[in-house]
Design goal:
CATH topology of the largest domain: Alkaline Phosphatase, subunit A
Low-confidence stretches: 360-374, 542-554
CATH class of the largest domain: Alpha Beta
Mean pLDDT: 86
Structural class: alpha+beta
Oligomer: single chain
CATH superfamily of the largest domain: Alkaline Phosphatase, subunit A
Shape: elongated
Largest sheet: 7 strands, mixed
CATH architecture of the largest domain: 3-Layer(aba) Sandwich
Number of helices: 26
Length: 806
């Protein structure tokens, strides 16, 4: 009854959803199909390193992401960006499986021979065309992309360099539809207006501080509208679009929030202004997550990750008193050459150009980003491309190798560039510092520090970067171990280089995410790609990901779960065995006692639910049908990854005067826990009090708990349909202990119903002498919707330790 009521209200809410109606009014296609199809929403928080993420969590700036970790069974992973540590390189690896696709954010194009930047639409499109040509499957195929460097193969890209906004869709709509769009999102637009005013006030304060700190007046003035547009307007437009796409059931949606990265470039990754932006991003993630949980067309997972981090930096010019271009010019003068003029890619950083993704020449004029063109081709002069802490120096074609080495030594020793790299042989770099020469990758510990969290990968990726076809003859880095990070642009926060903070992103994923086997504990973009493809049922042709086997973490503790799965029909009316399996996987039990499973029944589409759940969890199982009508079966199961043997399975007595009552049964297996045999008994008692009394007496009799083979330790699990104060539970309590009352510092909690837990009818009883180390009742959004019961998990300790106790 409760599930029917919730299903009704869910349908009502969907029918009244403004996102659903907007999709219909705009005539956007809907991805129809089974409501249990997997979907994926990937949310990128641009530029947020894991150390800064953890700092923000501790300061209460990310309350929803903290909830994901504490309540929704998410796990935090370190995410190594690869090199260069920039969004174009990370998204190329994520979307197309290509590492090191670009040598930097700004570099010389080998065809046009001019400096290009990855925010330029034609440049981003050309690089993506090369990625497509490699032949790997595009991750975002059939989905949508928001504020990304590439489309990723998305059918509907928005606010990307090569696909600006919703222009075509909105222009095709009639005026009444546009009016409906404005009215239906009135609250959102009011919210945007209020946030814009707040952000404008903060921006003005930031403007004054910038002037006091000696920054250029006009640059500071120009940054105010830029900051407001990126931090608020673009973020809110992405959320509105993402919610519409969720209501349509697109298979994959990728959204990049760039506000924090924008603020960090200007004021530094530790700044209050950058961290203020995180509060709005956290709220945006929460709204998308809620929309995903009410989707009618798919079962969405929400993954949150950052592509890279940022390091606080000083500009090279502020440290040295002259620009990098001046340094390169002086180094060439040591060659005795005359008439060589070093050409540079121009001053400034990337942050003031990001409003281009809002689209349209009017927007670009408003935010002063027109007239930015690459430098003219010129092979007779040295060329410098340095946008951030990675710089490329392109030498004249007729310059000999000895001259290159002299320039490199001058830049490192005289002009204090922290690290100057050049290719010495295939797979080997010559690295020059003020202290002398080194070789990479073998000397990576000396150059990058033995404590670098991604040391092995960084060494290989530096070689890949320098060997890129469009890399400079010399590659300059603004950091090495023991040196304060520098940027070759004027900014307070930077990324692209190899420092720990720049390369240290994070990934916040559900515990049961299928991650591929890998050499390191940390992830990199290609690992996220493989996991995403597997989740969507599109396995990568490379070795597929495998789900981590659930295993006991301590030899003297056993995690036991009892769970009534309601025939795998959730509170939303969806039949989904895999969803039940995900609830179980995230709780990481060693033994699972399940009730109300269907096998071969018409009402559940003929599926073998016990087998499906066990296969997902990589467990073995025993199933006992309490009800068996021709080919249809219905009953209970015990699943475990531990060695087990079936001891006995059979029926429980009913009531003679009520022959049509649902039959009830018992399943008994013995598991081997590191040499100790443990008896596990699973049951589901009847609905009538007198029926339950008879069934409990049978359980305590010689056929079951008093059986000669039922030697301690014993664990009895199930849905008893009885409260702790009932005669049934008191009778069982005379011989066994209720885990919820035995656990120290634990207040017993109800498990039924899942939405409003008010009845404690699911129980785990254990034989005397066992200890209860902990109790967990998963109460995540997934658990609350997957069944009408919540699972109960008990950590049971064997005080005398492991060993053969049989």
């Amino acid at each position: 009854m409760l599930s029917r009521i919730e299903t009704f209200f869910r349908r009502l809410r969907r029918n009244l959803s403004r996102s659903v109606w907007l999709a219909r009014l705009l005539r956007l296609p809907v991805s129809e199909g089974s409501p249990t199809r997997p979907g994926l929403i990937m949310i990128q928080i641009d530029g947020l390193s894991q150390p800064q993420f953890e700092r923000a969590l501790g300061r209460g700036e990310l309350p929803f992401l903290r909830r994901l970790l504490r309540r929704e069974h998410y796990q935090l992973h370190a995410h190594y960006s690869g090199l260069p540590s920039t969004t174009p390189a990370v998204q190329a690896e994520l979307f197309y499986g290509v590492k090191g696709a670009v040598p930097a954010f700004a570099f010389r194009d080998h065809e046009s021979r001019r400096i290009v930047r990855m925010y330029e639409p034609e440049v981003a499109a050309r690089v993506e065309a090369l990625l497509v040509g490699i032949g790997n499957e595009a991750l975002l195929a059939g989905g949508s992309a928001y504020s990304d460097n590439y489309t990723g193969g998305a059918a509907e890209p928005h606010f990307c360099p090569s696909a600006m906004g919703w222009g075509p869709t909105l222009r095709a709509a009639n005026p009444l539809v546009l009016l409906a769009f404005l009215i239906s999102n009135f609250y959102s637009f009011v919210r945007v207006a209020v946030l814009l005013l707040m952000e404008l006030g903060l921006a003005l304060l930031d403007f004054v501080r910038g002037l006091v700190g000696g920054y250029d007046f006009f640059k500071e003035l120009k940054f105010i509208p830029t900051r407001v547009a990126i931090s608020i307007l673009l973020r809110e437009l992405c959320v509105i679009g993402g919610k519409i796409d969720i209501s349509r059931g697109l298979p994959i949606i990728h959204i990049n929030f760039i506000g924090y990265d924008e603020q960090s470039h200007r004021r530094g990754p530790h700044s209050l202004f950058a961290h203020w932006t995180l509060k709005g991003i956290d709220d945006a993630v929460a709204r998308l997550w809620r929309a995903a949980n009410h989707s009618a067309w798919r079962h969405y997972e929400v993954w949150v990750y950052s592509d890279h981090g940022q390091a606080p930096v000083r500009s090279y010019q502020a440290v040295q008193g002259y620009s990098l271009e001046d340094a390169v010019t002086a180094a060439f003068e040591k060659l005795g050459t005359t008439g060589l003029k070093v050409r540079a890619q121009g001053a400034g950083g990337i942050q003031t150009q990001r409003v281009r993704v809002l689209g349209g020449q009017k927007i670009q004029r408003l935010f002063s980003v027109l007239g930015i063109n690459g430098d003219e081709a010129d092979d007779a002069h040295p060329l410098v491309a340095a946008l951030g802490p990675v710089g490329h120096v392109y030498l004249p074609q007729d310059l000999a190798g000895d001259a290159r080495d002299l320039v490199a030594r001058e830049l490192a020793r005289t002009h204090k560039v922290p690290l100057v790299l050049s290719v010495e042989a295939p797979g080997m770099l010559c690295a020059r510092t003020e202290a002398g020469e080194f070789r990479l990758p073998q000397d990576r510990a000396a150059l990058l520090g033995a404590q670098h969290p991604f040391l092995d990968s960084v060494g290989e990726d530096l070689v890949r970067l320098c060997e890129h076809a469009e890399a400079g003859d010399l590659v300059l880095l603004g950091w090495r171990d023991g040196v304060t990070p520098m940027s070759f642009a004027t900014e307070n926060g930077a990324h692209a280089g190899a420092s720990p903070e720049e390369t240290h992103g994070f990934a916040l994923l559900p515990r049961d995410t299928p991650l591929a086997a890998r050499e390191h504990e940390y992830l990199r973009p290609i690992d996220l790609r493989k996991a995403a493809l597997q989740h969507l049922g599109r396995p990568d042709p490379q070795p597929r990901g495998v789900r981590k086997r659930i295993a006991a973490t301590q030899t003297d503790i056993l995690r036991v779960m009892t769970y009534n799965v309601h025939g795998c029909v959730g509170m939303d009316g969806k039949l989904d065995a895999e969803r039940i399996a995900r609830v179980i996987a995230r709780a990481r039990p060693d033994v699972v006692a399940l009730q109300e499973l269907d096998v071969g029944r018409v009402r559940s589409q003929g599926m073998d639910q016990a087998h499906l759940i066990a296969r997902y969890l990589e467990m073995e199982f025993h199933f006992h049908p309490a009800l068996h009508l021709e080919e249809e079966r219905y009953g209970d199961a015990i699943l475990t990854h531990l060695p087990q043997r079936l001891v006995k399975a059979g029926p429980l007595p009913g009531l003679a005067d009520k022959p049509r009552l649902e039959p009830r049964g018992v399943l008994w297996v013995a598991i081997d826990l590191h040499g100790r045999e443990v008896q596990i008994i699973n049951t589901h008692l009847g609905l009538y009090p007198s029926e339950r009394v008879a069934q409990v007496e049978a359980l305590l009799g010689s056929d079951w708990l008093a059986h000669e083979q039922c030697r301690e330790p014993v664990i009895l699990c199930g849905d008893f349909n009885a409260l702790p104060s009932s005669p049934v539970c008191r009778r069982l309590g005379s011989q066994l202990d209720d885990v919820q009352t035995r656990a120290q510092h634990h207040r017993p909690q109800a498990t039924f119903s899942s939405r409003l837990p008010s009845l404690r009818i699911d129980h785990i009883f254990i034989s005397p002498g066992l200890e209860v180390a902990g109790i967990e009742i998963p109460n995540s959004e997934l658990a609350r919707v997957a069944s009408d019961h919540l699972p109960l998990v008990a950590e049971i300790r064997f005080p005398d330790g492991p060993g053969d106790k049989r």
